[in-house]
UniProtKB/TrEMBL annotation:
Coiled coil: none
Species, as recorded: Crocuta crocuta
GO biological process entries: 3'-UTR-mediated mRNA stabilization
Domain Endonuclease/exonuclease/phosphatase: 164-484
Gene3D superfamilies: Endonuclease/exonuclease/phosphatase (3.60.10.10)
Protein's name according to its UniProt entry: ANGE2 protein
InterPro entries noted in UniProt: ANGEL2_N, CCR4/nocturin_mRNA_transcr, Endo/exonu/phosph_ase_sf, Endo/exonuclease/phosphatase
Length: 538
C-alpha cells in the first residue's frame, strides 16, 4: 500500500520468497533487481509494476530492470522454513521518481483481496474547488478556496450552471470484470452498498446537469430515475443496443432548463461491418429558464466510446457520428453553433490522437496504427494502419464530421450526354475526395481539466482499479472567444460561448491508493465524478 505523502513503499508477503541461505546477510543487505525479480517470478510481481512518481505521455508506464539497493528490515530473518505472515521492507534509497507498487495477487479464499493492496487506511478523498480567474487572454490563474460559495448565480446578463460527468460503474460490468476489483473488500462491491453512496455524491454536488455512463437499465428504472426525479431532475436515457444492459443518461434540473429535443445516437450499424459494437450517445438541446424572451440554447452531449484499445478505427468513427449529431442539433439558422458541452468516458488518454482531434478540430491519420488512436497501449506491434477513409461512404458522414446531404445535381446534362472523358474526370474527383486522410470538425472545444498537476507534472487520474489508473473521462465545452484566442478553430462562429468558472479537483493515482483505490467505502465507482461550473454571457 502506498502512502499519499511518503516516498517509501511497504510491501507485504505471506510466504518466504528469498533463498533460505540469504539469512546470513544480516539485517541490512542489498540485492540487485534481477535477483529480486528471479525470486519473485512465480509471485507475479514483475508484471504488476507501477511508476506513479513520474509519467511520460504513455498512460501506464512500466519499470525497467535496473540495479538498486533494497534495505531489508524484517523483525527477524528466515530462522525457519515455516511460512510467516508479514515481513515489511522498504526501498529507502529510491529517488522520488521511482515509487513502485508490487502486487502478489495471492488470496486465502475466493473473497479475500490481494495482500499488497489490502486496505490499510480509512478515510475520505479530499477534493476541492479550483476557481478559474482569467486576468488576460494569455494568463489563467487557478484559485483554491474551500470557503468560497460555490453556488451558481443567474442575472439578466449571465446564466451560470454546473455539469457533472460520472461513470457510475454498471453492476453487471463489475461482476463480469471482477479481476479489476481484487483490491476491494467484497461488501463495498454490492449494488445495495454502492448506490446510496453514488446518490449521496450526486446530492452533495447538486449539479444542474448530470451526464452518467454505465447506467444499468433495471437499476435506472427501479432506483436511479425515481431517486433523481425526487431531487428535481428530468431524466433522459439511451440503453446500449446489444446484450449489455447499460447505457447513458442525461438528467437536468427542472428549475434551470427546459427540454427542446432529445437525440439518441446508436453507433451500431447493420449495414456497416466496421460498426458492429453497441455503444451509444445521447444529445439534448436545452433552453435556460430566464426572464428574457429570447433565451439562448445549450447543447449537451454524453457518450461512452468503445473500450478496446486496439480498435481506434471504431473509436474515431463513433466519435465522428457523435460530432455529426451535435453539429445537426447545435446548428442555428444564422450558420453558427450554440454553446456545447460534451461529456463522457472516451476511453482515450490525454495527448492521444483521438483526444487531440477533439481539442484541435483536425487530425491527419495517414500511417496511424489503429492501436495508437486512443493512447491506451504503448506498443503498436502487429497492428494494421488505419484505412483511408476510415469509414465507408454509406455511413453518410463526411470527413468534416457532419451528415452528408444528398444533393440532386442540376439537370443541365444527363449521364448519357456526358462524354467518356468527362465521366473519367468525375470519377477521379470523387476518388480524391474520398481518399482524404484529414478529419475535421467545426467546434472550438476545450477541456475543463488540464490533466497534469502544474507543480509536479504528475497526471491526474479519473479511473483507478487493479489494472490501471489513468484519465479517460472528460468534460469538453465550447469556450468563449477570449478563452480560445489563437487556438485552432477559434474562427468558428459561436453564440456567446461558455466561460469556465470552476472545476472540482482531481487526484493522482498515489492519492487514490491511500484510500485503497476505487471503489472503496466512500467512493462507489471505479471512476471519479468530474464537475465544472460554467457561465453563459447573455
Amino acid at each position: 500500500t502506498k502512502s499519499g505523502t511518503s516516498r517509501s513503499v511497504f510491501i507485504s508477503f505471506r510466504y518466504p520468497m528469498f533463498p533460505h541461505d540469504q539469512k546470513s546477510l544480516g539485517r541490512d543487505w542489498t540485492t540487485p533487481w534481477e535477483n529480486l525479480q528471479r525470486c519473485c517470478w512465480n509471485r507475479h510481481i514483475s508484471s504488476c509494476m507501477r511508476w506513479p512518481g513520474h509519467y511520460s505521455r504513455a498512460p501506464y508506464p512500466y519499470f525497467s530492470s535496473r540495479h538498486f539497493s533494497l534495505h531489508w528490515r524484517p523483525p527477524c530473518l528466515f530462522e525457519s522454513r515455516t511460512p510467516f505472515q508479514y515481513h515489511n521492507w522498504r526501498p529507502d534509497s529510491l529517488s522520488h521518481t521511482s515509487l513502485i507498487h508490487l502486487s502478489s495477487y495471492i488470496m486465502n479464499s475466493e473473497g479475500d483481496e490481494p495482500s499488497s493492496k489490502r486496505r490499510k487506511h480509512q478515510g475520505t478523498i479530499q477534493r476541492h474547488w479550483e476557481y478559474i480567474c482569467n486576468h488576460s487572454k494569455d494568463k489563467t490563474k487557478i484559485l483554491e478556496d474551500k470557503n468560497v460559495d460555490s453556488t451558481c448565480e443567474d442575472s439578466d446578463t449571465k446564466f451560470d450552471f454546473s455539469v457533472m460527468s460520472y461513470n457510475i460503474l454498471s453492476q453487471d460490468l463489475l461482476e463480469d470484470n471482477s479481476h479489476l476489483y481484487r483490491h476491494c473488500r467484497r461488501p463495498v462491491l454490492h449494488w445495495s452498498f454502492r448506490f446510496p453512496n453514488i446518490l449521496k455524491e450526486i446530492k452533495h454536488f447538486d449539479a444542474d446537469v448530470l451526464c452518467l455512463q454505465e447506467v444499468q437499465e433495471d437499476h435506472y428504472g427501479a432506483e436511479i430515475r425515481p431517486s433523481l426525479e425526487s431531487l428535481g431532475y428530468h431524466c433522459e436515457y439511451k440503453m446500449r443496443t446489444g446484450r449489455k444492459p447499460d447505457g447513458c443518461a442525461i438528467c437536468f434540473k427542472h428549475s434551470k432548463f427546459s427540454l427542446l429535443s432529445v437525440n439518441p445516437v446508436e453507433f451500431y450499424r447493420r449495414d456497416v461491418p466496421l460498426l458492429d459494437r453497441d455503444n451509444v450517445g445521447l444529445v439534448l438541446l436545452l433552453q435556460p429558464k430566464l426572464p428574457s424572451a429570447a433565451s439562448p440554447v445549450i447543447c449537451v452531449a454524453n457518450t461512452h466510446l468503445l473500450y478496446n484499445p486496439r480498435r481506434g478505427d471504431i473509436k474515431l468513427t463513433q466519435l465522428a457520428m457523435l460530432l455529426a449529431e451535435i453539429s445537426s442539433v447545435a446548428h442555428q439558422k444564422d450558420g453558427s453553433f450554440c454553446p456545447i458541452v460534451m461529456c463522457g468516458d472516451f476511453n482515450s488518454v490525454p495527448g492521444s490522437p483521438l483526444y487531440s482531434f477533439i481539442k484541435e478540430g483536425k487530425l491527419n491519420y495517414e500511417g496511424l496504427a489503429i492501436g495508437k488512436v486512443s493512447g491506451q497501449e504503448q506498443s503498436s506491434r502487429g497492428q494494421r494502419i488505419l484505412s483511408i477513409p476510415i469509414w465507408p461512404p454509406n455511413l453518410g458522414i463526411s470527413q468534416n464530421c457532419v451528415y452528408e446531404v444528398q444533393q440532386l445535381p442540376k439537370v443541365e446534362k444527363t449521364d448519357s450526354d456526358l462524354t467518356e472523358t468527362e465521366l473519367d474526370k468525375t470519377e477521379v474527383l470523387v476518388t480524391a475526395e474520398k481518399l482524404s486522410s484529414h478529419l475535421q470538425h467545426h467546434f472550438s472545444l476545450s477541456s475543463v481539466y488540464s490533466h497534469y498537476f502544474p507543480d509536479t507534472g504528475i497526471p491526474e487520474v479519473t479511473t483507478c482499479h487493479s489494472r490501471s489508473a489513468i484519465t479517460v473521462d472528460y468534460i469538453f465545452y465550447s469556450a468563449a472567444k477570449e478563452d480560445v484566442a489563437g487556438q485552432p478553430g477559434a474562427e468558428v462562429a459561436l453564440v456567446g460561448g461558455l466561460k469556465l468558472l470552476a472545476r472540482l479537483s482531481l487526484l493522482t493515482e498515489q492519492d487514490l491508493w491511500t484510500v485503497n483505490g476505487l471503489p472503496n467505502e466512500n467512493n462507489s465507482s471505479d471512476h471519479l465524478p468530474l464537475l465544472a461550473k460554467f457561465r453563459l454571457e447573455l
